[in-house]
Write a structure and sequence with these properties.
Elements lengths: L3 H20 L1 H6 L1 H19 L6 H21 L5 H24 L11
Helix pairs in contact: 1-3, 1-5, 3-4, 4-5
Length: 117
């Protein structure tokens, strides 16, 4: 159960990012610090969960999506990225984080039985 907690929290953050992109994009544009905080939280949670998860790639992918989100928000803040492109980065980053973190939370491989000698 302890290994599921950081992944489930990251899943909720990813769902919120997807929600914010689709239904409340004005908040993403006006409260960029909130998106920065969400991305930083996902990175911290991914680092925490990578130590205990069976597979390391979901945490690594969530960190990469969060870094792309931080870069996109920064570029959008300085006018280097259009609103449409920023929408898609926030939306897909949220989806990637939510799906992969949830998968890492529920995936538990079968134990391979040892030889019965």
């Amino acid at each position: 159960m302890k290994t599921m907690v950081p992944n489930l929290i990251a899943t909720l953050i990813g769902i919120w990012l997807s929600y914010a992109a689709v239904l409340d994009f004005s908040r993403v544009e006006t409260s960029r610090w909130l998106v920065y905080a969400a991305a930083a939280a996902v990175i911290a949670l991914a680092l925490w969960s990578r130590r205990r998860d069976f597979a390391k790639w979901p945490g690594t992918s969530s960190m990469a999506a969060s870094l792309a989100l931080i870069a996109a928000i920064g570029m959008g803040q300085f006018g280097l990225l259009s609103h449409l492109a920023l929408f898609w980065v926030v939306f897909f980053s949220g989806n990637i984080v939510a799906v992969l973190s949830f998968w890492a939370a529920i995936y538990r491989p079968k134990q391979i039985p040892t030889s019965q000698a």
